[in-house]
Design a protein that fits this description.
five-stranded mixed beta sheet; 356 residues; alpha/beta; binds zinc ion; binds 5'-O-[(R)-(carboxyoxy)(hydroxy)phosphoryl]adenosine
């Protein structure tokens, strides 16, 4: 079964072809350089870029896959991210997927982007069910009970900022160029964490939700009290300026990331008191963070269960994970029709599939 995956929820335009043996072809174009000029994603520019790139990228994907003179005859399903994400960006991918579905008579499947992130782990390792899913991205922080690839329940989520947002905002306030998360990680690697510098926010309760806004405020306060420690300004590449960074900022970055990672593992450990998972899946852009990876490795070792984290290229937004999620939906015989809606951030994804 060959599934085409399409991803355009934020600032990556990506398409991939996946079958049961793995990835057949994959293309991705990031708009990070464009949005860096504005210090964050500009939705209108993002959707225009998706519209400009999605057709040519699809052509390159088909060339890469080498499917013969009639490539569309080889494609069994078209899976597309329907949300959550930026509405204008989502609509480009969804409209493109509908056009392909209609033109070539290929069934359409709408995918929950967050579930796609989690299922990316299944491409490289076997997920043992039930699994505890920890989805940490730029816009979302969700804990899931995963009973199977199409059977997931949200146990808790952030009430305000996402873990990635907390990283990005601290990075921006410290003077790091956008997108700041990965650079903050690099900065933290040069520092020593002080476990008492920042709070583990919203952990003194018995629920599974998160709130990172207090940590963000603590980070801003520290930065306003240490203006001399800010990241060196200049036109040279950020990687070069990293070498000149103030040691206090490196230590604060390490401490801030430890606060995020420990807050996540505190709630993950609490979720494991409510049910007994056979594996832990950590996914989404922030799963690329070295401190988060280390702290979850510790938790998994202590509980003696496998930890599954996608490789770095599958942590950020990509279409391979969307095609993989589509493969599972197709196996469950779930498809959508041309009325498939795009769902912006903050709204829940309807369970409106049709069973074949
Ligand atoms: O999943 P993703 O690519 O896009 C969304 O769906 O949001 O996640 C992007 C987020 C951004 O906040 C980015 O700064 C963060 O992931 N990120 C990191 C690292 N790499 C990406 N945060 C901390 N450490 C990293 N190494
Ligand atoms: Zn994402």
């Amino acid at each position: 079964m060959l599934v085409l995956g399409i991803e355009s929820s934020c600032d990556e335009t990506a398409l991939a072809l996946v079958d049961e043996k793995g990835v057949r072809a994959s293309v991705i174009s990031s708009q990070a350089d464009i949005h860096a000029l504005f210090g964050g994603v500009v939705p209108e520019l993002a959707s225009r870029e998706h519209a400009r790139l999605i057709g040519p990228l699809c052509d390159s994907l088909l060339k890469q896959a080498n499917l013969g003179p009639e490539p569309w005859k080889a494609v069994d399903y078209i899976a597309v991210t329907r949300g959550p994400g930026l509405m204008g960006s989502l609509l480009v991918g969804v409209a493109f997927a509908k056009a392909l579905s209609l033109a070539h008579g290929i069934p359409l499947i709408g995918i929950d982007h967050l579930q796609g992130h989690l299922l990316a782990a299944g491409l490289e390792h076997e997920i043992l069910w039930p699994a505890l899913g920890v989805l940490i991205s730029g816009g979302h922080t969700h804990l899931y009970r995963m009973d199977g690839p199409v059977d997931m329940t949200v146990l808790g989520k952030t009430l305000d900022d996402a873990a990635g947002e907390a990283c990005d905002k601290f990075a921006k306030a410290a003077g790091l160029p956008y997108p700041g998360g990965a650079l903050l990680d690099a900065l933290g690697k040069k520092g020593t964490a002080d476990a008492h510098l920042f709070p583990r926010p919203y952990t003194h309760n018995d629920n599974l939700d998160f709130s990172f806004s207090g940590l963000k405020t603590a980070g801003s306060l520290w930065l306003s009290q240490h203006p001399q420690a800010h990241f060196p300004a200049g036109d040279s590449p950020a990687k070069e300026r990293l070498e000149l960074a103030d040691q206090r900022l490196c230590d604060a970055a390490a401490s801030y990331l430890l606060a995020i990672a420990e807050t996540l593992t505190i709630k993950a450990a609490r979720a494991m008191e409510r049910f007994t998972p056979r594996s832990i899946v950590v996914a989404g852009g922030v799963a690329a963070n070295s401190v988060v990876r280390r702290e979850f490795a510790r938790l998994a070792e202590k509980r003696n269960i496998p930890l599954l984290i996608p490789s770095l290229s599958l942590c950020g937004d990509n279409a391979v994970m969307i095609a993989e999620a589509g493969r599972h939906m197709a196996a469950a015989r779930r498809v959508h029709d041309l009325s498939l809606s795009a769902v912006p951030r903050g709204q829940s994804i309807p369970r409106d599939w049709r069973v074949l």
